[in-house]
Structures are given as C-alpha cells and as structure tokens.
Design goal:
6-stranded mixed β-sheet, 1153 residues, Arc Repressor Mutant, subunit A, alpha/beta, 7 domains
Length: 1153
C-alpha cells in the first residue's frame, strides 16, 4: 500500500501558474499507484467537479481543496511588514458534504465581498469551519515569519488560534523543496507542531508533472508577467515542484515518516467528493400546481390571440378556421402534456416572463433561435415569433419525451438592451440566485509559439516565419504537433537552430493549457437555491460581474440550469433603423411586414446584399443571383444550405427550382414532405419526417434516430437500422429499398440543418433586406452608426451608397450628429465616426447645439463647448475631416493652430475676466483670433481627410484625371467587378490611389504585398509578387495615384487582381498628349493586341479606310467566334479606337497581350 499521496497540486486552473492538466494528474496517479490525490488551486475551485469526476473515473480518490487567500489579522502581522504580508495562504480541504458546501460558501464570499482582490476574512473561515480540514500552507504560509531558532509571536498566535478552532483538523505542512526561495526554518516549525501536539504532513506544492517540464512552466510564468526568461530580477520556482513518486518523497522524509503517513490519513478523512447531479429547475412560482395552471392559461390565451391575427392577415374562410383551430389546439395540448409531465412548466414561464419584460420595455427580441422555434407553446407565450405548424417545425426536435433532457431556449436580444434584461432577472430572482457563466481561454498552437518566442527573446521575424508555416484554417483547427508532422520545414528549422528546437519543445508542453478566465458570451444560470450552494462564485475583475467558477459543461453537471442570453447586433440595427423610419412613417412596424414582398425578393435576386444578415458574403451573393429567390422558403433553404457540406446541394436545389433538373423524392410517399425543397433533403426535420412517413416512427423516436445518425454510434445505428427496415416492410417497401433509403438518410443526417433555427434567422435576414429595399437611407444610416468605429466597414457602406447614388454629406459641426443621420435624400456623416474624436465628446457637442442653436463661427464653437470637445486631437480631427468648412476657415489654419485654440480655451475658462458684464451691462466675450493660412494643396487635403474618415469623401485624387480615362482606355474597378466577361482578362488598365501597402513574406521566403487602392467607384485590393514588387516598391507611395496594369482571375466567384505594371499619371498623360502612350518602344503598355468583337454586318473594307500607321500593335477580328488576324503591326491611337467603335457591327474592343 502507498504511504504517500500528493495533497497540494496546482492544476492548469491555477491560471498561468499551474501547468498540470487534470487528465495528466489521473495518469500520474495510475503510474505511481497513488490511491488518492488532492487539488489546491490558488484561490479558486474552477476545476473541483471536473477533477472529482475525471480522477475518480480511473479509480483514484479525489480530495477537494483550495489554496485560500486569507487576510492577515493584526495580531499575526510581522513587525517588518511588507505588502505581501497583508495576506497569507492556507490549504483547506472538505472532509464531507457539509465541508464541501462550506468551502463553496467561503470561496464565493471572497469574490462577492472583495471583488477586486478576493480574499477570505478569518472570521468567515471560522464561521464555516465545520467539515473542513486545514493545512498551514507552503511557500506562502504565515509560518514563513519564523526566524532562526526562535518562534515569532505571530507564528505562535496563528498556531494557537487554529489549534483552538480546528482542533484535530489542523495540520502543519513540511516541505523539503531544494532551491526554494521561500524555504522556512524547518526545525522551528517542527518544534512548534510538537509542542502544540499538532500533526505534521509532507507536501510538495506540485506545479508541473516532471523535471523536464520545469523550463516550460518557467516560460508560462514569464508569459503571464510579460517578462523574459533571461531576466534575473524575477520570481522563480524551484525545479523540484514536480509530481514526485512515493520513493522520492520517502527519501526526502525518511526521518519524519509520520509526515508521509499523514497524507494517507488525510485522504481517509476527506473521502467525500462532489458528483454530477440531476438538474434542479428554478421556480417561477412557489406552488407547482399554480405553475401548471398558469402555463395552460397563458398558452391558450396566446393561441387565441395568434390565431385571431393569423385569420385576419391570411383571410381564411369560416370552415377552414374551425379545422385550423382544432389542429392548433390539439398540438397545443400535446405539447403542454409533455412539458407538464417532464415538470418543465416553470422553465417555460421564466423564459416567457423575461422575454415579455424585454418587449414591454422596448428591447428587441429575436423571432427565435435553435430548435425552440419548433414549439407551439413557445409561440403562444411570445417566446418565439414563428408559427411552427405553418413552417413544418417539430416540437420533439426541441423537447423529446423519449429522451429526457433539459429544454434549452437560446434567446437573441438587441445588443444594447441585453444587460437591462439581465438586470431584470437579477432583481426578480435575487442576486444570489443568478450568475453568468465563466469560460476559459486556452494557449492555442500559433498563440503559444508567439508567447513562448517572446519570453525566450527570439527575434519577432523568426517567430513570425514559424507562424506562417502554420496557416490557420477555422474549418480544420490543428494542434502544434499536427503542424509539425505535416510541415517538414518546422523540423528543419528546429534542426538548424537550438533556440527554435527549444521553442517548439516548450510550446508543445504548454499548448492547450488554460490561460485566462472571461465571461461566456451568452450563458446565465438561474437557480432555485442560492448559486453558491452548488457552484462556487467568481467575480470578473474587468466588470465586477458575478460568474460561476465552473464552465458551461460543469455548471450543468453540478445541477444548475443555464439560459442563453445572446446579444445580436442585427436586432440593434433593425431597431435603430426602425426608429429612423418612424420619423417619416410613424406607423411602421417591422413585425407587420409581408414575407412575400416582391421588392425585397428583387433586391435579393440581384445579389446586392451588403449589410443583409446572413446573406452578405461574396459566395452568398453569387448564390442568390443564381437562385433568384421568390418565396420565403427559399431564404430558409439557403440559410441552411450555405455551409460546408450541404453547399454541394445548392446547384441541385437551384436547377430543380428553375425546372432544369427533375426533383428526386427518393420514394413516392415522400413527395409531400420533400416538395418544398424539390427533393433535396436539407433539414433535420425532414430526416425525422422520412422516418415517420416510411417507417412509422413517432416524432420522438425519429429524433432519437436523427441523433444516432449524427453521432455515428454503431451499436445504436445497427438497432435503428433494423427498426427502420421493419417499419418500411409494413408499408410495402422492400428490404433492399429500405436499406438504400436508410443509408441515404444517414448521409443527410450528417449535414442536415435545424429548420427551426434556419427559419428564425431567415426572418431576420428578410427584415434587413426589406429595410434596405424600402428605406435604404435609414438602413445605411443605422448600419454605419452601428459600425461607427470600424472605418473599413463604413467604407464598404460608402461604396454601396455610391452604387445606389445616395449622397453621403461631409461632416459638419452644425448639422451632423454623433451618429449617421438622414437628411432628406442624403446621409449626414457622423461626427462620432471621425477618428480621434470619441462618440461621447460628440454627444456633448450635439447637446450644446440642440440647447443653444447652431454655432455662428469658429470662435462661437470654441467658446460654447467644454474640454471634452476643445482638445488638440479633436480640433485637429474635425478640421481634417472638413467639419469646420462652413465657417470659411482653412483646414490647414485650424489644424496648425489647434494647440493655441486649446490654450485659449483653458485660459478663458480659468479667468473670470474673460466673461463679465461691463459697467453698461453689455456682455464682453473674449474671442480667439485665427491667423489666416494658405489652404493645403488638394491632394494633401484629401490625404488628411482620408486619415480621419478612412476614405475620400469631399473629393478624390483621381478626379483631376477623370477627363483622360477614355483616351487612356482606363476602367473603374466596379466596371470590371460587374462584368463577368472581364473577370479573367489580362492587362486591364485601371486608375487607382494607393491607400495602404502591407508587405509580407511567404513560407518559402518570397516577398509579396497586398495593396489597397481607391478609385472613383470603390476600394479594391490587389496583390503584387516579388519581381514586380522589387521593381515598383519605391514608386508605390501611399496617397499617390497611378495607372495600373492588372491581370484578373476569378475563383469560386471571388475576383482576384494581380498588379503587373505601375505608371504615374503624369508620365502616362504626357505620353498621351503626343500620341505616344501606345507606341513607346520600351513601355510595358506596348506590344498589345487589339481585339475587335463584331457581328456579321461588320465590313473589313470600312476598317481598311482608316489612316493606318506602322507601329507595335497587332489586330485580331472575332466574328461569331471565328478569328481573323490582320497581317502587320500598327500604331493605334485613342482617336482611331473611337472611329473603330463607330463602324457598323462592332460590339466591343479590347487590348490584350
């Protein structure tokens, strides 16, 4: 039998301090044959339940504890007090269930009472001492105050007090860790223990698994502290803080064997462990019978209201009404019976209550999310806005009586109102009954390489190169070991450089460890009892929000019920847009729009869906153009199909919709079920329907089949297959047919999408498309306001406005607001969107203007605004953006004198003489005298404007060159993008102003760059590779305008441009004046072939009559796909091209190499 076990282990949940995964502790215990093991993470119990379950699953007894931070009482304070002495740490374990509950209470109180610096008051510890066992602590024990051969009064007081309070539940720790900076004088401590009849126990404070992990752990500590491993003046742990074997510990403590035996004694005394519990649903009403009654009443009342509205909007005759009402009432009763039988009535009432409160308080709520939209009860309670019968949604997909599981409503709220709903829930159920859920970030492959490289002092370029060898693919996340196995150059680099080898070795050991704690985006628990009675509480240091210390998985395993409160930005967009619409249409209600609106489908069919929820990616735009949606079911289908896997079915869906491909319904009995999607199985509900129609499954059984197919559990699949075939045989389907259908169904189940979710999100997509169609100005004003700090997104919206010919007016301190606003048929640029000003200061400006009227001039503006507005950065930004232009002052003058403006403003506010009445009662207001300065030159002025707005607004550097576009045969990017015939053309000429240049190095060491250009129609990105980058690098300066020679290619609907040639406009326009632009001997624009595309009415004789001069251009004529080459080479001018275009039969003229 073992005579030692490790009690004090820091798992990875001692964030950035412990480097020991729980799974590895289990393996080490098995390897060393240790029957029990403890957990003492620093000031938290994040891993308590996970540790309990995983360790016990391999036959090892878990001992649940915590290394608690205790505030030092005055009588324990050392005379030479230091900051860290204000607190000390104890290792505290739970002996039984009472002790575990008390430990939860103590650690929760630490965070609830001392949010920013969690610690335990010693009185709180004494008050909750029942069932606890205390160890005096190791490196950070109060006993470190012992000095030399004497016992300090502080240590003596501590030992006496704890002996009195905990009696035989108090042990003094002895550690023999060589090289430990905090090693205490052991003889003094032993005497203190023996004199007071207190048992001693041997511990080792384990931080990592073995000696070969010391360097990795040391690097981990440096990552957290932002230090270098090579730094000398930093905290280091001993190399001996590893998971030692019994033999090693016996050798260390051979003179104090009882210290080893006492670890086993403690294990025997602390035999209790927390276990996974069945969930306990919170109560809406203290009386269960009242909850059942209330659920029925509210559901029937809601059904009556919904059917009344349905009958009015769909103009249904009286006979049909009776049949419909009967169908809905039967479905409602069926659902209510299942909900009540499963005792989930309180859950539905709670969700209904906080959603109703949100709607009553003008907080937008999504129409539904996930499988919950399949519930008729949810529709009647206003939890969802989708009629599940109308859309063929299945309740059992959400709540299956044949597979008991918790209901799980995911609720989307307006992003700006979500916190208000949470506040309401806290107030209704009590702060101690509500908490948000914690989540943990991990050290992932590329991130750990960067972090470790930094603390090892490896040059950034080397580390960056390694990361480039590990491209990130979200659809196929890889571990560091997988990258090393698949990319031989990583091994090559390690073989060439010992530092890189060390970097990879350390990174492999740290990868996957928990790094930080944060708030889960959605998860909230509402508990029947106080949360800390089941789960410890944590306080987020950045927000002071109370969180559960267990993450999503383990909080549910602890018996608590989670609710998902999601903040959806698009709901905020719809709400903000609706408010703008109501200025011109007060009766507008987004919930009342018709889902058959033709204008909306016309917009969607063009693929112009920038800003449309779920439908704005490049690939989706292309799909919509092919699909030409004309009914709401098309939107549901495309939301479900446009994902990896089912995307392969999009062409079939489109072809079948337009009659170019015959639908395949698998079996005649399935035509009604699959007609909606032309025989393409898209939804999980259809998979369930196939089982129901062909094999007689109930909806609950069909849900079990769907889950079995999705999880590919072979044993379950075999049983289901036989059940399916037997059911099919009863409907005269042969065994072979049934077998084939089952295999097809299994394939569909792999990627089938939840129709309830797709339908709910299709509603939001349609609503945004409707707003863009019918209220484009309000839509873009709301969209741009929502992305006010994202200049890239605002720039995209600005391009859309240009396409739609909606004017975006420049910012003005007298007319613009903090956000984007409609102004007749244009949009006023938001002051808050200007870089360096801040939305809050612009609200101050806006409020001042609203209260006291427009600003008369710059001086009036300075005198009336506060210091949040009158500061150097804000004045400079407003001037560059043109917000003062109406005052007839030069942008240059205001910018250059911003410091003087601020100095004047401060002086005015601090000196009462600046604002006083003279003896005649007149008001003397001082004024700032702006010194006149010459305005910036046009291009520099536009460049400064671009810096503040992220794009050109009042003008464009290319405007001066626009008159020459035709003669130079330049195109705009939008023309190329919209004309698919040009998507694979070489040597197309564009004008472009360079916005940004990002040079990169490929994994093979080649330089290349991504270049962002702007022209008069749009912003576009080109790539340039090494040979041309080297050639044009010095010429390509940001803010300069060029003629660009570009090769375009199109892949998967995405247009890609490679920059091959670069010319300054000055050079090209100079050559053009002398007709030399197309015949300059060594110019790369020469030696091109002129292609004339014509029909059969074209006459070569008419072409021959033009004045031809020998040069360097060949001519080819294409008539109905037949090529005719004209012998010789000619000089082709823009004048000749104009004449050729006027010839009869000429359709198009292009230059190619």
């Amino acid at each position: 039998m073992s005579d030692f076990i490790h009690l004090t282990n820091k798992t990875e949940y001692s964030l950035s301090e412990g480097a020991l995964p729980i799974a590895r502790i289990s393996e080490l215990c098995q390897a060393f044959k240790m029957p029990a093991v403890g957990i003492t993470d620093t000031n938290n119990m994040f891993g308590a339940l996970e540790f309990s379950e995983k360790v016990s699953s391999v036959g090892v007894q878990p001992i649940i504890g915590c290394n608690l931070k205790i505030k030092t009482p005055k009588n324990y304070l050392h005379e030479n007090i230091e900051e860290e002495d204000l607190h000390f740490f104890l290792n505290i374990f739970s002996k039984n269930e009472v002790g575990y509950k008390n430990l939860l209470n103590i650690i929760s109180s630490a965070y609830m009472n001392h949010k920013e610096n969690a610690y335990v008051d010693i009185e709180q510890l004494y008050k909750n001492k029942e069932g606890l066992l205390v160890l005096s602590g190791g490196n950070n024990s109060i006993l470190k105050y012992s000095n030399g051969n004497s016992i300090t009064s502080q240590s003596a007081s501590f030992v006496a007090d704890f002996k009195k309070e905990f009696i035989d539940n108090f042990y003094i720790e002895i550690q023999r860790i060589e090289g430990n900076d905090y090693r205490i004088d052991e003889e003094v401590i032993l005497n203190l223990a023996y004199d007071n009849n207190i048992p001693v126990v041997a511990t080792n404070d384990v931080y990592f698994e073995g000696p070969d992990h010391f360097e990795a752990h040391d690097a981990l500590m440096c990552i957290e502290k932002k230090l270098f491993v090579s730094q000398k003046d930093r905290k280091r742990l001993s190399k001996n803080h590893y998971f030692k074997s019994q033999n090693e510990m016996q050798e260390l403590f051979s003179d104090i064997p009882e210290a080893l035996f006492n670890t086993i004694e403690i294990a025997q005394r602390c035999s209790h462990r927390p276990k996974i519990k069945m969930p306990v649903l919170p109560s809406y009403h203290n009386d269960d019978s009242q909850e059942k009654k209330l659920l029925r009443e509210l559901s029937h009342k809601g059904l009556e209201q919904n059917l009344t509205q349905k009958f009015m909007s769909e103009q249904i005759d009286n006979n049909s009404k009776l049949n419909i009402k009967k169908e809905y009432e039967e479905r409602l009763e069926k659902e209510l019976k299942i909900i009540i039988d499963m005792k989930y009535e309180g859950y539905f009432l709670i969700v209904s209550d906080f959603i109703r409160w949100a709607k009553d308080n003008d907080i937008p709520v999504g129409p539904g999310r996930g499988s919950g939209a399949g519930s008729l009860v949810a529709w009647c309670l206003k939890i969802t806005d989708l009629d599940p019968i109308k859309f063929g949604l299945i309740f059992e997909r959400f709540l299956n009586p044949e597979r008991v599981s918790l209901p799980d409503f995911d609720i989307d709220f307006c992003r700006d109102g979500r916190d208000r709903v949470l506040d309401y829930v806290h107030q209704k159920y009590g702060n101690n009954h509500v908490a948000q859920i914690i989540t943990f970030g991990k050290l992932q492959a590329r991130a750990v390489i960067r972090d470790v490289g930094r603390v090892l002092g490896i040059p950034y370029g080397q580390v960056d190169y390694l990361c480039k060898l590990m491209p990130f693919d979200p659809s196929r996340p890889m571990t560091l070991q997988q990258y090393i196995d698949e990319e031989p150059r990583l091994k090559e680099e390690a073989g060439k450089d010992d530092k890189i080898a060390k970097l990879l070795d350390i990174s492999l050991k740290l990868e996957g460890l928990k790094r930080h704690a944060s708030i889960h985006a959605a998860g909230v628990v509402i508990s029947k009892e106080e949360v800390f009675k089941d789960v410890p509480i944590y306080s987020d240091p950045d927000s002071n929000i109370f969180l559960t210390q267990f993450d999503m998985k383990w909080v549910e395993n602890a018996g608590l019920v989670k609710f998902d409160f999601l903040g959806l930005k698009t709901l905020t967009l719809i709400d903000n847009c609706t408010k703008l619409v109501k200025f011109s249409n007060p009766d507008f209600n987004i919930d009342n729009i018709k889902l058959n609106d033709q204008g909306t489908y016309d917009l969607l069919s063009t693929g112009e869906t920038t800003g449309i929820f779920q439908l704005e990616s490049a690939g989706m735009k292309d799909t919509l153009k092919q699909l030409q949606p004309d009914k709401f079911e098309d939107i549901i289908a495309i939301v479900a199909l446009y994902r990896p896997g089912p995307m392969a079915n999009i062409p079939s869906y489109i072809e079948r919709k337009h009659g170019r491909e015959k639908p395949d319904y698998i079996h005649p009995l399935l035509e009604d079920l699959l007609k909606e999607t032309y025989g393409v199985v898209i939804y999980q509900e259809q998979v369930m329907g196939v089982a129901r129609e062909l094999s007689g499954y109930s909806d609950g059984e069909a849900d079990l089949l769907r889950r079995a197919m999705g999880k590919k559990i072979q044993k379950e699949m075999n049983a289901q297959k036989q059940r399916f075939i037997n059911g099919c045989l009863k409907k005269d389907i042969t065994s072979n047919e049934a077998h084939t259908i089952f295999e097809l169904l299994s394939k569909f189940a792999d990627y089938g999408f939840n129709k309830s979710h797709a339908a709910a999100y299709a509603v939001i997509a349609f609503q945004t498309a409707y707003l863009k169609t019918h209220y484009p100005i309000e839509f873009f004003a709301a969209s741009m306001s929502l992305d006010i700090n994202n200049t890239d997104k605002i720039s995209i919206f600005q391009q859309e406005l240009m396409r739609l010919k909606i004017k975006l007016a420049p910012p003005s301190v007298n007319y613009s607001g903090p956000n984007f606003l409609r102004n007749n048929d244009s949009i006023l640029y938001a002051l808050g969107a200007i870089k360096n000003v801040g939305i809050e200061s612009m609200k101050d400006l806006y409020n001042e203007r609203n209260e006291n009227g427009n600003f008369h001039d710059l001086n009036d503006f300075i005198n009336r605004n506060n210091t949040s507005v009158i500061n150097k950065k804000t004045i400079e930004a407003l001037s560059c953006a043109g917000a003062f232009d109406e005052f007839n002052v030069s942008r240059a003058a205001v910018f250059n004198q911003a410091s003087e403006i601020v100095k004047y403003h401060k002086s005015k506010n601090s000196n009462s003489i600046d604002l006083q009445k003279d003896m005649f009662g007149d008001m003397n207001i001082s004024s700032f005298k702006l010194t006149e300065e010459e305005e910036w030159k046009s291009n520099y002025k536009l460049m400064k404007e671009y810096e503040m707005l992220g794009f050109y607004l009042s003008g464009h550097p290319l405007s001066t060159h626009k008159k020459n576009y035709k003669s130079l045969m330049l195109r705009e990017y939008s023309e190329i993008k919209e004309n698919s015939e040009l998507h694979n053309q070489k040597d197309l000429l564009l004008g472009g102003t360079l916005l940004s240049k990002k040079e990169k190095r490929s994994a093979r060491g080649n330089n290349y760059a991504f270049l962002n250009f702007s022209d008069l129609s749009s912003i576009f990105e080109l790539i340039i590779f090494e040979s041309n980058l080297r050639k044009y690098r010095e010429l390509l300066l940001e803010g300069e305008s060029f003629v660009l020679g570009v090769d375009f290619s199109s892949q998967n609907g995405s247009l890609r441009g490679e920059l091959k040639k670069v010319f300054s406009f000055e050079e090209v326009e100079k050559l053009n004046k002398t007709n030399n632009f197309n015949n300059k001997e060594n110019d790369q624009l020469n030696n091109q072939t002129l292609k004339i595309y014509a029909d059969r009415s074209f006459s070569k004789d008419e072409l021959a009559k033009l004045n031809w001069v020998k040069g360097h251009n060949k001519i080819e004529i294409i008539i109905n796909n037949q090529l005719l080459k004209i012998p010789g080479e000619f000089n082709i001018t823009s004048e000749m091209i104009d004449k050729m275009k006027s010839l009869n039969g000429v359709m198009k003229i292009d230059f190619v190499e």
